[in-house]
Amino acid sequence: MNNFGKLKDLVMSLEDDFSKFYDKQNAAAGTRVRKGMQELKTMAQAFRTEVQNTKNAGAAGAAKPAAGAAKAAPAKKAAPAAKAAPAAKKPAAKK
């Protein structure tokens, strides 16, 4: 939950700047809001990547067979069908 706390802290730190920008039309506060939103975007992407990696690591661990379990033989691929020879062209009739 540490990541959630960081996210919440960042959003809460932007509250005053949002108020100053939208209520008082303070342009400098707008710059701080944009900077904070960029940090939020970067943080969100890092959290998304972490969640995906954790999820994939858990799924990979669940997919492994139990110790001592017999492995199934891999399925063999069927041989490709033989291609038919192209039809011979008829000679052009002379007039």
TrEMBL record:
Region of interest: Disordered: 56-95
Name of protein: Histone H1
Taxonomic superkingdom: Bacteria
Biased composition (Low complexity): 57-95
Species per Swiss-Prot/TrEMBL record: Hymenobacter negativus
Family: Belongs to the histone H1/H5 family. HCT subfamily.
Entry-linked Pfam families: Hc1
Matching InterPro entries: Hc1
Function of the molecule: Might have a role analogous to that of eukaryotic histone proteins.
